Queue: 3 jobs
Job 1
Amino acid sequence: MKTRPALLLSLCLFVLPVVAQEEIRVGVELQPYQPYSDVQGGEYRGYARDLLDAFAAESGYRFVYTPLPVRRLLSDFLAGRVDLKFPDHPQWNADQKAGHAVRYSDPAAPYVDGILVKPQHLGQGMQRIELLGTQNGFTPWPYLSEIRGGRIRLIQANQIQSLLLMASSDRLDAVYLNPKVVAHQLGQMGMATDSLVFDPALPHVEDHYYLSSIRHPQLIEAFNRFLEERAEQVAAIRLRHGL
């Protein structure tokens, strides 16, 4: 006796397993930091979102993004209230991470942090910098000795916009930030994107941001494979966001 096609289809649907996507809580920074990331209307956006979504779509994970202030993000990560943290770096808060088996991915996003000044001060060296501004949570690594020695006074603020206004009005001699983030923020403020410029002759940091996890080392391994095997796709995402 022939089996009807409709019956065959019903049997196949019955025996196929239902594959549920695993929900992963991704802790991300609440602060605006385009083109890397931003939170608008409660929605996480930017390069990091596009990169992580591309990985999740291919790997079968369902990422739920949890934007948090920088300090709370670290504490929630170490306490296991979020599964992943982005951005992260092995040097960041190393003392607080001691005793936790934090697994870091391969480099996920290139960045430069350095000194930005008004164009007329470009190339004038470090000697003119007495008041240096940076964002709360940032560590100006190349200038720690001068700051600790009292030669440079560090001013920190929660908002990048406040720092840029202070530097533009000469209330700060310079800011220590990411040049791409500064240019984007200046444009958002209606100011010329070159009203503060990066001085490459001064000490700066060229490095990468990483994805990290304590609870899911196997996910970090999968992410590393994605970065390697989908290198062209990753490069296209970076290009789209100007990175």
Job 2
Amino acid sequence: MSEAAESIFSLVKASEGGAPLYLQLKKNIEDAVQRGVIGPGDALPSERDIAIKADISRVTVRKAVQDLVKSGILVQRHGSGTFVAPRMERVEQSLSRLTSFTDDMARRGMSASSVWLDKGIYPPSPDEIMILGLSAKELVARVSRLRIANETPMAIERASLSLAALPDPEAVGSSLYSTLDKTGSRPARAVQRISAVNLVGADARLLEVPEGSACLHIERISYLASGKVIEFTRSIYRGDAYDFVAELRLAGPGEESGGTT
């Protein structure tokens, strides 16, 4: 970190009747980010180093940093340290097309990648039995991955399929749909349900956002052209990164309307 950037930590001074020290430090860091003195991805010094530089306690430093993490200005990565959060470019996702994450990002000129979290065969849950039409004695294939765009975690996808559709989850490479294509099991259409939830635990850490952050939970049931259910997916999308867009048309005579006028 440059000398100019480090100087933001030496500006905290106790003043009678002034703001608490942690708020002074918090404001110094916020101002530095806004002015570009420290930019996205830059690492902050350790709490100990900041405390020594600013001549304040580590408890004060920790409180300022935690507030900035909660507000999304900083991110903490376990075992790595504290960094200025990347600037998020919001992604506008159409709800009228069934496309892959990789294709969506490519159309926006963004580099897409994935980290596999799980590929395995398991006893089905009650939801998987009901939605995929399985018996209690059948097993289910599950594949889960963290979706990344331009090195920023964007979503967690957890897909469940029957073994008839995906007998070997380990065979899935970069694209699940490409694998399903080979067996004639690629979905033709899907129905999605979107709800707002707050991230907790491991999902928050995977997406590098504070616990309690708003996100979009999406359940998608995908169908073959024949109408058979082929895939049940539950996904978590960052609320600060995605806008889902749907085109609405006025219902014609005799058609059901989805809203009021």
Job 3
Amino acid sequence: MLMRYVMSSLRISLLMMIVLGLGYNLLVTGFAQTVMPERANGSLILNDQAEVVGSRLIGQENRDQAFFQNRVSSIEYNGASGSPNYAPSNPDMLKRTSDAVKEWHTQNPDVQIGSLPLDLITNSGSGLDPHISPAAAEVQIPRISKLTGISPSKLKLLVNKHTEGRELGFLGEPAVNVLELNLELKSLMPE
């Protein structure tokens, strides 16, 4: 009698592993591939040679000052998501923020520190945010114009073109995807 219950439990467990562990995942993946294949495949961005250069969903480190810079990343854009969640009074947070302000001012001496948007010196919750605010993009225009020779007005138009509105018209804030902006900026640069 006990053996019958054990075997019955094992069969149900095996069936549930197949249905929920394999079947459900195949169903959801198939649905996603049918309804939104671009998103299901990681929202990848391709260059002119059809090579993957990144994702619309994950920020990338870019140290070239001729391009727009992302938010500060507490994880150095290594692909793992997370943030130390320091309180504003934490000495490590104060030092990191102070260092970010000094570095920013060194790279952008024409911009007043008081006009520096906070998203350029603070990190997002995931540490991989691909977006910055339109103000954070605009404040970088003088440096980029000086380094690339592209006029500030042309760069402003580029930022406006890549500014995404609020989700559903009322959720979140307008944002600029840095990778997409930099890819178009690169196409405007002289060889």
